[in-house]
Amino acid sequence: MGRTLRVTSIVVAAAVVLAGGYAVADANDVVPGVLTTAPSPTPPPPFPTAPAASALPRPGAAPALAEDAPAPRSSTVAAATSKLVHGGQMGSHVGVQVVDRLSGDVLAASGATATYVPASTQKLLTGVTALTELDPASTLPTTVVQGSGSTIVLVGGGDQLLAAGKGSPSKTDGRAGIGDLAAQVADALQLQGRTKVRLLLDDTLFSGPSASPTWDPGFLSEGYVAHISAVAVDEGRMTDDEYAQRYADPAMNAADVLAAALKKQGITVTGVARGDAPADGAELGRVESAPVRDVVAYALEMSDNTITEGLGRLVADAGGLPATFDGASKAVLASVGRLGVDLSGARLADCSGLGKGSRLSPRQLAELLALITSDDHPELTGIVAMLPISGLRGTLDDRFLSGDARGMVRAKTGSLNGVTSLAGTLVTHDGRELLFVVMADKTGAAGQWGPRAALDAFVSKLASCGCS
User: Fold this and answer.
1) Model pTM greater than 0.70?
2) Is the dihedral of CA 433, 459, 381, 439 positive or negative?
3) Which DSSP symbol is given to 418?
């Protein structure tokens, strides 16, 4: 699919803001801030060349840990926390919790039991739930089955990352291809001596509104999220750009793409409409998505709202709840609660963190991080490896570009208008693993540069700590 995965240019970001995109910065966690009156940050140093680059950990490889590494002094961490909370750059409502992973001791906490707007840090809950309630090795099928008479039916199984042409077995985005599906269907039809069909679309796996009423309308119009559907080509994008306009009906667009692909295979499609697939319809073709574990990793690394919402609906469906925004958010809260996280006071407006009304506390996110780094839950420990990596990958690839924090922080970002958050793990200079959560949801009109600078300085201080 070849689209640019990140937009980091200040010129491009400014254009997005002028178009009204500031309020929807959470979609990629990097848009806001360039129009602030605060001075521009010092340009980061260039990516190191060999041999310096060769000393960095491989993206995906866990940093070295030492079981006997000294933990930072709680007084030192508390002092850094106080400076962050009361320094003014993070606004008037800041919550922090820092935990020593090995002992479970809370090294510092401030406002940790209050609730905040989580933004995309909320995706941690959906990712954990998807890997708990779904089979991580399972795939999402997109099939075509025989309908009545001369009809065939495209059946969506939840894959919103279909390629328009051939699928790529090495990719998550575009693992399955509509072109491959069309070739299978055309072969089956031609063996039957049929070259003319009517195509129906069955996308009833997901139900309810395709866009949340809690979303700002700009989220859709500016391409930060798509209408959630049971089948889609490239998340419903109209062009090959990350923030491209989205089709109002991604599932129907997928059916149109299939009809065009069938025409290239010598099959005439006389019409396209919605209709239910028969329970006993013979299968004419099938393509499969990447495994669920890879889809979860994609959603977390890229902070992809559309894919995260789809995962939530799949979880709801697996649990017997309606595959709607409401059913999905209830399913996520119930699943995380069953894992032992105290979610008193927590609310989810959706599964991605875009919706108005979500509330979580630093303590709750810290408890979740403790779960996914615990030997008691080996099925969840792989989630840490899916997170963005400081200075190297995902929504942290342009942060922590130098110093001890580079390559040592794995965390989920979260940004909205007035919201700056980060939750994850880091390895200190001494080799001790810490869990940390920082949430601020009243940063005002300062944009993202100032709050992020303060937050990143705090995390860098923890990473460089040799303060046993």
Assistant:
1) yes
2) positive
3) T
